[in-house]
Structure formats: structure tokens, C-alpha cells
## 1
Amino acid sequence: MTKRDRVAAYNRITRVLAAVLARGFDQSTLRTGLYGDYIVYPRCSECETVVISGVATHENGCHNDTHECKGCNNRIPVRQDYCEDCR
Ligand SMILES: [Zn+2]
Ligand SMILES: [Zn+2]
């Protein structure tokens, strides 16, 4: 991998990591793979995270689980109906 490829891969994976964190996987980590590629490990402090077809999922009833705000597309905790902007 060239340095340029690594920078592009890193930029891509930090976006993936940010998206995973926004979905409540607060203990997610970024690791380097065998070939200098980057891998996101989604982890939640409140449940055993299950990854199904590459999509991280919280256990049923997890406090950190998120859903879409009823007023917009923001991801918010399941215990809230609306995000800060829509309240
Ligand atoms: Zn969880
Ligand atoms: Zn909203």
C-alpha cells in the first residue's frame, strides 16, 4: 500500500468509526489489519454487540441502542423520541 492509499483508507475508516460511535457503540476501536488496512471493531459498553452481515447490532433493550429521530434523520438514543433540534 502506498502512503497515499493508507491516508485514503484511514480517512474512510474514521468516517466508518464515527458512524458506528454515533449509533451507540461507545467502546468501538480501530485496529490495523495484517496488510496495513484498518478495521473497525464495534463494541458497546451496555451489551454484547452482534455483527450481522457487517452491520453492528445492539442486543434487544440495550440502553445505547439508537433510532432515527421522529422529526429528522438524526440518530438518537431509543429512549428519546426527538433530537435536540426537533424538541
Ligand atoms: Zn448495546
Ligand atoms: Zn430531529
## 2
Amino acid sequence: MPSEAEKELALAEYYEKIRNARVRLQTEFDKNERKEVDIKNFTALSVIGSGGFGSVYKASTNGQGPYAVKVQKKSFIRKYGLQKEIILERKLMAYMDSPFVMELLSHFKDADNLYLVMPLARYGDLYKMLKRSGAVPEARAVKIIIQVVLALEYCHACSLIHRDLKPHNILIFERGRVKISDFGCCVRSDGQVFGMAGTSLYRAPEMLKGDYYTEAVDWWSLGVIIHQVLLLELPFCGKYDPKPLVISSILNASIRTFKSPNYSETAENLVRSLLEKNQANRLGAIKPGASFVKNHDWFKNVDCTS
Ligand SMILES: Nc1ncnc2c1ncn2[C@@H]1O[C@H](COP(=O)(O)OP(=O)(O)O)[C@@H](O)[C@H]1O
Ligand SMILES: [Mg+2]
């Protein structure tokens, strides 16, 4: 067990790193790196995900791995004019440096595709976990969610808004380790940000209304996720509701309350503070947002440093 002094030191080092994160990311960002790797070196073992741009494979190379290899089709990227987003995603993943953020081990391309090689999350994503095992017991959910809070703390310190936080983009590793992934919708938060991004069910009201927004949209998505993880239900609407109904429920409806032994008053209080429709009053809206979220009672028994 680390002593109190060692814990204090670890915490001080952690905050120093967070303070330097944006500067470091900015410096590293413009470097032009090139990796001499080829998809022919990889053996695909199975498909583990498919998204808009292509598929994600479990694959090994030269007896090493398995890794996750995300294949992005160039034709798709060209068709939808997503070149800028794809380059940003790759660069961010290459240079972000947090245990709670998915890193890039390598990347390369051929005539048809771009390839991103990542560590493999053996337990898949949080969405699959919910489908497989049902609601997450609250004590375990706290340990998962605090890591998402730390990931957002890091992203926001780098002046980045994730904009597509949802269970599908939260990956589960051994020993309950969690990383957020999928930076294809990420945007720099300097100045006022506009524009629709991410997935309707997790979008904050200000984004849906076309207003300017801030990092607080990620805290909203986190509120939706906590509700879903504990109750297997979305807070405002059904998963299969038509889009106009989803939007009007997020904008106008109050949170559907459920009585469940897996939904303590403290959890409900946190969810309500994050799902505050007025972004100015939302928990996390005032900088440094993550500190306010971490200080909520729901997290009082978890160690925020490890
Ligand atoms: N490193 C990984 N380890 C395990 N599964 C992954 C990994 N990366 C992605 N996946 C799976 O593939 C899915 C799609 O990947 P993602 O990067 O989110 O692509 P998209 O931009 O298409 O949503 C994820 O929801 C997850 O199920
Ligand atoms: Mg995704």
C-alpha cells in the first residue's frame, strides 16, 4: 500500500502532467512521423467491430499481439469529405498520453485503406458488456466511470472536446481498466464551437439546438451513460424512438425516474447534475470541470490517482 506521502506525490505528478498536456500535445502534433509497417505483416483473427468507415479486426503480427486494427476505407473518407477528421483522429491518438485514452501503436496505409493499430481491449466495449451482462452493479460502475472522468479531464486539459462519448467508445481491458476511444468527432475547444457531431441519443440540448457549446457537452453524454449503465434505460427516450421524438425528449422532457436498488440517491443526484439542460448550470461546466465532477459524493470511495 502506498503511504499518504507517496499518494500526495503521485497526485502532484499527475496534475503536473495534466497541466503540461496541452503544450506537449501541441508540440508533438505537427511532427511528421512515418512508420514502415504493412498490413501484410498482420493476420486477421476475427472482426471485433464495425463502424461507419470500415471494420475493426483482432489481428496478430509476427507472433505478437493480438492487437486491434481499425481499417478505414479511403473511398468512404473521400465520398464524405472526412479527410480532416481522419487525420486529426490519427494524430490525436498518436500523441495523447493518458492511461485512460486509447493510444495508437502504429499506423500505415495502402491503396484502399488506412490502418490504425491499437492495444486490444479484451473485454470489448461498454455497450457490448451491457448487452452481455446487463446493468453494471453500482459499486463496479463507479470504478468504470471514474476512469472516463479522468479521460475527459485529460482531453479537456488538451483543449479537446470528444463529442462522441457513448458506451460503444468506452473500451474495457483486464483488471477493470478503461480507455475512451474513437476520436473521429473530436474538436478543439478554443473559442466557440458549433456544429452537430456524435450520436443523437447522447447529444446535449445546446448542440441539438444549434447553439454554441463547450466541453460541457461531454459531461452531458457522461450523465446519459451513467443512467444507462445503472438502469439499462436511456434517461429521456427509448433507444428505438424515431429521431424527432429523441430530439424533443432531450430538449423538453424531464429525466424518467426509475426505482432500482442499483440506483442510489447519490447516483441519481450526479446524473441530474450532469443532465442539466442549461449548459451554464451543468456540473463540470465551470473550469476545471473534471475537478467538480470528481468531487461528487458518488466518487468519494474511489482512488482518482491510479
Ligand atoms: N482497441 C480496441 N479493442 C477492442 N475493440 C475495439 C477497439 N477499437 C475499436 N473496437 C471495437 O470496434 C468498434 C468500432 O470502433 P471505433 O473506433 O469506435 O470506430 P467508429 O469510428 O467506426 O465508431 C468499437 O465500438 C469497439 O466495439
Ligand atoms: Mg465508435
